[in-house]
Amino acid sequence: MEKGQQNYINSINLNTDADFPYLVLEVVNGHSYPLNPGFRVMHWHEDVQFIYVLEGTVHVQTLNNEVELQSSEGIFINRNVVHLVKQTNNCHYMSFVFPEYILKFYAGCPANSLVENLIGQECIPFCYFSKRQTWCEQILFIMQELTTLEKKKNEFYVCEVMIRLFTLVLLTRKNHVLSQVKPNDTIALRMRIFLHYIEQHYGDDVTLESLAQSANVSKSECIRCFKLSMQITPYKYLMEYRLSRAALLLRQTNESVGNIASNVGFHQMSRFGKCFKEKTGCTPKEYRNAAKNN
Length: 294
Description:
The chain is an alpha+beta fold. It is built from 10 helices and 11 strands.
């Protein structure tokens, strides 16, 4: 695991315990199916992720880089890479998430080295598939096929998907192009500290001063780091983080809404309800009910 990864939200594959741990998220205009509120919070997951854009523009941001995906383009995001997916209005994309082990044939199989030489390699955090690059054409076509398979499932669905997933990884490994953009290590290091501090203290009275002090920088430098790396203010990120944790608690616990609000740093129930509805379009209770029926 990349150093410091444990300091960010670990986004869990909802199908982890299923016989076929393959999760497909369809995101239309910010609404995810299955339910996912889509908070602007940096996260990571132990699974591999491929994203394919059907319509609109998607921005995939890591701590060091940002890639813009247009319609009919895609990206591979390696496991344990801290990232954020943002989209414009009228955006429609598919996200394919799955663990590394379903790509391996059997213990000791020589082909497994191909998987290991790609997945989990820190030197390959992501790979962008542009529709302007000839070598990407087959990869993008396979992601189109995976999208179609979700709407036409039959008795061969699992085998059809597994064949395409392995082919995606094979083609990515054979053709990947590393980013030539030199990361700003100083800002990335400071952002890791800031995000770690928020993860540890989001339920407390976090101030700009206390956040800046966590990395021994000025308040203006703290704001600059957030705007350069995430195009968002520290306060806005803190609110997004608190709401994301509240959504998680609403989905996974029976804790009262009032206690959840207090636990994530909202001292006024009315303020929490207003912010939550502005973000999700529903009240906390409505969100909890929808999550149970999803």
